[in-house]
Structure formats: structure tokens, C-alpha cells
Write a structure and sequence with these properties.
Blueprint (H helix, E strand, L loop, with lengths): L1 H10 L5 E2 L16 H15 L2 H4 L8 E5 L6 H12 L3 E5 L10 H15 L3 E6 L18 H14 L7 E7 L7 H4 L6 E4 L5 H12 L10 H6 L6 H17 L7 H13 L10 H20 L6 E5 L6 E7 L10 H11 L1 H10 L9 H16 L33 H28 L1 H14 L1 E3 H8 L48 E6 L6
Helix pairs in contact: 2-4, 5-6, 8-10, 10-11, 12-13, 12-14, 12-17, 13-15, 13-16, 14-16, 15-16
Length: 530
């Protein structure tokens, strides 16, 4: 019985791990793409090493620091770097470690964690994914006195209660700051909130250099070029690209990792793995080629859109083809004109099917495009105030779920009249984009034909080949090896659907080149539900 009692007593002890001095250290030299966050945290470390430098002027040690940012941006890595740089005791714990099936255990673990911190002060306590325990208090579905709320109350008291925790800094990380309780975020608890966002092009290059140090690189590697081609990617994505490039090189028994390995790895991470073993009929290949050609022509001929850098009809992941655009520079805001152009480009695949094969032979391949276009149009009307009819009003429903601790009656109510206006405006935006796509493809039907035939022959087109086709230049023949399971030969007319008309060859004229945001247009499996 006594042994069981001891185990029960231990149950309320904190699960925090004390990082020992012998643990391999991560330092700020191992972190790139988060210069502002590093600067803020360096000040915290300096505060720990020499508190008198700041306290002599009346300043006090920050109680808590919250790292906020999307997944994969390096929040936990920054915390590990703080542990390596601080040379002070560092306790590490996950927010989910506080939660147990027994009432009172979470609060007990919070108290025990801070007791350990006081014994080792000055020290740092790091709680990863603090939103698991720090969510907004409210009725929810579990009442106001559930285990999670008791744990949160204990955390609030320990951070700024009657007893002082001088010398104990709480460092926490989350990618959902919107669900945290306001009492947790006020000054005196989390004095500082440090945003760790996705890196810019310079930060991406720095991250690639850190991970590439471990790889034997060929002479043709241009990390700056890879960084420019990966906008919006997090540090975790870039690390994955470096790892995939090394695996691809090893698979080919190469001694060094070459630029082509990085390009293939980037495509694999962004678009999925090639499925060359998937055998498509000639009609499916032809449908996919015109679908992707439609996206490509819209991307080339609508002013202001990002340049199309790759289009392919090789199946990847769940898609039969992809059209990829990349910005020439990082973009942080979007104009109404740009978004309307994106809507038209999303409809390019469906409209190409209508123009080439007729309205009765359209396919399910545009299902994903229509879904994304509808979501974008709804955002334009409901969130961004880009509708003159609805006006500058935010009419979106709250996205908070009741079981996460929000009040049952907190969801926003929209009148039937407003909801009808929103639906009408969304439909108008989509219809306008569809009509615009139709006009562009009718005008540039010859370019649509050129891109589609080049795709059937080569399966993948790069930016230089796409630009050559736009200039009206013929590409040199490049037949696909006979060993390929998917034939690249021209379609056999006898195998086409009876109602599919022959390709149209409409005269076209060169339009303005697009300007500088990242978009990937996929043609999902035509056999799937659209």
C-alpha cells in the first residue's frame, strides 16, 4: 500500500526535463531567418547573466516571453538556443504534460514546476505548445471548473500572484495566440510577445546555408536561387528540402549533392512525389494537358500575376497535373486587381475544357480550383471589404469551437439579407472571373494549343520553354523514353470521346507579361469527386 501511495504522490510531480550542461548545445549561430526574435531573446539572456545592468535603472526582469508564429518557423529551436546561450538551468516541458485524467494533477504539476524553478533561480522554464493548457476560459462543454481551467488558474497565480518568482522566466511557444486566455497575455505575466514568422528571401538563404553545411555540395549549387524559388516556406520546409536532396543524391550513388537534386527535392516537397507508375489513358492525358495549359495561358496573359515557372502533366500526389507560379519578390499584401486575376487563373483549367471539348465534356478536374476560388471570393467579400454592395463590413462567423473553451453564444449572427448579399456578390465575382478566363482563352487559343501540345510531348515545361512558346517559337522535339509507362505520343482520334471536338486553333496576340505571391494549380484525379 505504501508503494502505491508513493506512486500517487509522484503523480503530481512536474514532468519537466532539466537540460544538463552535458547536452549538445544549440546556439544562436544555428538559427537563421529570425533576427529580430534573436535580438529580443539575447536581451533576456543578458538580463539573466547580469541583472544589475538593468535593475540599477529601475527595470525589472521580464516574467514571461511568448514566442508566436506558424508551425515550423523555429520557435522551439529558438528556445533550445536560449538554453545553449544562457548557461543557466533550463526546464523544458510540453503544455500537454500538465493534463491528466485525474482532477488536480495539472495544477499540482504547475506548482511543482515553479518550485523547482525557484530552487534553481535564476533559470528559464520553457513550455512548448502552451495553448494546450492556456486556452480561453469559458462555459465550453465542460463547465467552468474543469481540470484544464484549474491548471490555467494555477499557472496564472504562479506567474503573477502574491508570491514572487523573481529570477524565474517563463518562455512559451504557440502557433495559436488567438485562443489564449487574455489574463495569460497581460503585462506582468507574458511581458513580451515575440513574433517568429516565415523567413524572407534573405532568411531562407541563411537557413539553407546552415543545413547545407552538413552536405557535400557540388560546384553548381546556388542557394540564393533556391531561396528565391521557395517563398512562404518555413525553416522546417527548407530543412526537409535539404534532406530530400541528400537522399535523392544518395539514391543515384552520387558523391555530392547537385543543383538538380535540390530542384527535384523542392518539387517533391511543394507538389508531392511523382507517380509515373500511374497509367493514364490518352484521353486523360489530353484532358490534363489542356486543363494545365488553360491555367498557364491565363497566368501569362493577365497583367500583374506571378510568372508561371513550371507546368507539368506528370501525376504528383493526388493531382494529375500542376501549374506553379512564383513571385519575383516576397509579397506581404494583395490588391483587389491581383485577387481578381487569381480567380480568373483558377478558372483557366475548367474554361479550357469548355473551349476545347465542349460544355458536355467538362471533367471533375476543376473541383479543387472551384473550391479555392470560392474561398478566395468569400474572403474578398466577407473579410477584406472588396465589395461595394456589402461594403466595409466584416461578416465572417467566429471560427472558435465551443469545445475549445469559447462561450456557446459567442458566434456572430448575420442577417438573412446580409447573407443573401454575400452569396450574390461571391457569385458575381466568380461569374466575372469565369467570363474573363473565357475571353482570354478565346483570344489566345493558338497559345493554348501550343502549350497543350508541348505538354503532351514533353510532360513538363520550365519557365524558359513557357516563355519561348509565348513568343511563338517552336520547341525542339524531345520524345519521352519508351520505357516510360505513360506514352507521350499524340492522341489517337479513334480513342477520343465522340462529343469532343477537335482542338481549336484561334488566332491570338501577345499580351502584357505578368508582374510579381505563390500559387499552385492542381488538376485532381478526374475519377474523384469534384
Amino acid at each position: 500500500m505504501q508503494g502505491g501511495g508513493n506512486r500517487a504522490f509522484q503523480f503530481g510531480r512536474s514532468k519537466a526535463k532539466l537540460i544538463s550542461p552535458d547536452t549538445p548545445k544549440v546556439t544562436f549561430a544555428d538559427v537563421a531567418g529570425a533576427d529580430e526574435a534573436k535580438q529580443e531573446l539575447e536581451e533576456i539572456i543578458e538580463f539573466l547573466k547580469d541583472p544589475s545592468k538593468f535593475s540599477r535603472l529601475g527595470g525589472r526582469l521580464p516574467t514571461g516571453v511568448l514566442l508566436v508564429g506558424p508551425p515550423g518557423t523555429g520557435k522551439t529551436l529558438l528556445a533550445r538556443a536560449v538554453a545553449g546561450e544562457a548557461e543557466r538551468p533550463f526546464f523544458q516541458m510540453s503544455g500537454s504534460d500538465f493534463v491528466e485524467m485525474f482532477v488536480g494533477v495539472g495544477a499540482s504539476r504547475v506548482r511543482d514546476l515553479f518550485e523547482q524553478g525557484k530552487e534553481h533561480a535564476p533559470c528559464i522554464i520553457f513550455v512548448d505548445e502552451i495553448d494546450a493548457v492556456g486556452r480561453h476560459r469559458g462555459a465550453g462543454l465542460g463547465g467552468g471548473h474543469d481540470e484544464r481551467e484549474q491548471t490555467l488558474n494555477a499557472l496564472l497565480v504562479e506567474m503573477d500572484g502574491f508570491e514572487s518568482n523573481e529570477g524565474v522566466i517563463l518562455l512559451a511557444a504557440t502557433n495559436r495566440p488567438d485562443v489564449l486566455d487574455p489574463a495569460l497575455l497581460r503585462p506582468g505575466r507574458f511581458d513580451r510577445q515575440i513574433v517568429v514568422d516565415v523567413p524572407d528571401v534573405k532568411g531562407r538563404e541563411g537557413i539553407l546555408r546552415i543545413h547545407a553545411k552538413k552536405l557535400p555540395l557540388a560546384d553548381d549549387i546556388e542557394l540564393a536561387l533556391i531561396a528565391r524559388g521557395t517563398p512562404g516556406m518555413s525553416g522546417a520546409d527548407l530543412e526537409n528540402i535539404c534532406n530530400e536532396a541528400a537522399l535523392l543524391a544518395a539514391r543515384q550513388d552520387a558523391e555530392k549533392v547537385a543543383m538538380k537534386d535540390f530542384e527535384q527535392a523542392k518539387d517533391k516537397v511543394m507538389f508531392g512525389t511523382e507517380r509515373r507508375s500511374l497509367v493514364l489513358t490518352e484521353n486523360e492525358r489530353r484532358l490534363t494537358a489542356y486543363h494545365e495549359a488553360g491555367h498557364t495561358v491565363l497566368g501569362l496573359k493577365i497583367p500583374g500575376l506571378d510568372p508561371v515557372y513550371k507546368v507539368s502533366i506528370i501525376p504528383r500526389g493526388s493531382a494529375l497535373g500542376i501549374t506553379a507560379s512564383l513571385p519575383e519578390e516576397d509579397r506581404h499584401s494583395y490588391t483587389k486587381e491581383w485577387m481578381e486575376g487569381q480567380l480568373a487563373m483558377l478558372f483557366g483549367g475548367r474554361v479550357a475544357e469548355e473551349v476545347i471539348f465542349g460544355p458536355k465534356d467538362i471533367t471533375t478536374g476543376a473541383g479543387n480550383d472551384i473550391e479555392r476560388a470560392t474561398a478566395m471570393a468569400r474572403k474578398m467579400v466577407m473579410t477584406f471589404g472588396m465589395s461595394d454592395v456589402v461594403g466595409l463590413v466584416s461578416v465572417g462567423d467566429s471560427e472558435q469551437e465551443v469545445f475549445l473553451g469559447r462561450e456557446l453564444g459567442q458566434r456572430r449572427v448575420v442577417s438573412e439579407h446580409t447573407a443573401r448579399l454575400v452569396d450574390e456578390e461571391v457569385k458575381r465575382l466568380l461569374d466575372t472571373a469565369h467570363e474573363r478566363a473565357h475571353e482570354v482563352l478565346k483570344e489566345h487559343g493558338d497559345l493554348l494549343e501550343s502549350v497543350a501540345h508541348a505538354l503532351l510531348e514533353r510532360e513538363t515545361l520550365g519557365r524558359e520553354e513557357i516563355e519561348a512558346l509565348e513568343r511563338g517559337e517552336a520547341l525542339s522535339p524531345q520524345p519521352v523514353p519508351a520505357s516510360e509507362e505513360i506514352s507521350a505520343s499524340p492522341p489517337d482520334p479513334s480513342k477520343q470521346p465522340e462529343k469532343a471536338p477537335p482542338p481549336l486553333g484561334l488566332p491570338g496576340a501577345d499580351g502584357p507579361l505578368p508582374g510579381p505571391a505563390t500559387s499552385i494549380y492542381e488538376a485532381p484525379d478526374h475519377n474523384s469527386e469534384g
